[in-house]
């Protein structure tokens, strides 16, 4: 969902997206799904998300990053590749890596 959101948001300066059409985003997502294991949503993710949002006083659009962080923590996924490294630095146990650093 996060990747789709970034792909289909307008390019800067309007937004921090890539400006792809849904058709292009669909091709990228289909390609990437072949490389990743999809993890299930679990009730524990909601509980962890609530803990993170309260502990770190998360507001606005950053609640979506908190949801992703909660899912990562519940599933034991320690690293994320993201353009928004700063948004994930508050979450202990998550190593955020910028694509330029790979």
Extract low-pLDDT stretches.
none
Kindly name the structural category: mainly alpha
Largest sheet: 2 strands, parallel
Strand content: 5-15%
Oligomeric state of the chains in view? single chain
Q: Output mean pLDDT.
A: 94
Number of separate strands: 2
Arrangement of strands in the largest sheet: 1-2
- The total count of helices amounts to 5
**What would the principal axes of the Cα set say about the shape?**
globular
Percent of residues in helices comes to 40-55%
Please tell me the total number of domains.
Answer: 2
Radius of gyration: 14 Å
Distance between the termini: 22 Å
Order of helices and strands: HHHHEHE
How would you describe this protein?
The chain has 102 residues and is mainly alpha-helical. It has 2 domains: 2-33, no CATH class; 43-101, no CATH class. It contains 5 helices and 2 strands; from the N terminus they run H-H-H-H-E-H-E. Strands 1-2 form a two-stranded parallel sheet. Helix 1 (2-8) packs antiparallel against helix 2 (22-33) and helix 3 (43-55) packs across helix 4.
């Amino acid at each position: 969902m996060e990747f789709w959101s970034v792909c289909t948001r307008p390019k800067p300066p309007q937004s921090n997206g890539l400006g792809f059409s849904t058709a292009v985003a669909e091709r990228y997502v289909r390609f990437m799904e072949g490389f990743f294991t999809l993890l299930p949503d679990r009730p524990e993710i909601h509980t962890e998300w609530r803990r993170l949002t309260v502990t770190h006083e998360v507001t606005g659009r950053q609640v979506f990053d908190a949801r992703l962080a909660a899912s990562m923590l519940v599933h034991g996924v320690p690293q994320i590749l993201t353009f928004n490294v700063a948004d994930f630095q508050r979450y202990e146990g998550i190593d955020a890596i910028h694509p330029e650093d790979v």
